[in-house]
Amino acid sequence: MNFKLPWSGKDSHKDDPFWDFFVNTAPADLTNTVTELIRNAPAGNIFPTKAELHTPEITASHVKGMAQYFGVELIGVAKLDLNAAANPENLPFAVICAVHADYDPRTSPGIGGQMPVQNGLFITFVLSSWIRELGFRATVVRDANTDALAAQAGLGTLNGQGKLVSREFGAGVYVADAIYTDLPLAADG
Length: 189
Known about the structure:
The protein is α+β, with helices and mostly antiparallel strands and 189 residues long. The chain has a domain at 55-181. Helices cover 28% and strands 15% of the residues. The protein is built from 5 helices and 7 strands. The strands form 2 sheets. Strands 1, 2, 3, 6 and 7 form a 5-stranded antiparallel β-sheet that branches. Strand 4 and strand 5 (164-165) form a beta hairpin. The protein is globular.
């Protein structure tokens, strides 16, 4: 007897008439999405007293552990150019978070295609809030070249289109917005 569950397997959605809509059709009103809610939420204040920290290496491992708790699948720390125009606050480090993406959010604008974006936004929002609670600056930077920063942090390499390719997920990875911070960290890569 050959028994097959309807939701098992990679092509379980091929006969679903709503799947293409779910993955590829952008919402008519972006305010109906979690993505816009998180992007428009205020960042919050920096706690006035800095927390006592371990070494930059241990602090980096704590940040990575916290990000993994929130659901990140790849994480690294990149050293930033303090004089770069893209870094107006002169913050020394970028925390780079990435999640697996079955569909590239750049070509799949539907809710299903945007799930990695929502996951990444949640992770960076909560992680940057936690860093501010430690008494350090943490800014989520949307327009940063996150794929290049992810490669610099050792999360993978860049393909010909400048997109990150990781050992774990190949090109099926979404790099979330970078968190620029002055939290003393040890850079990867």
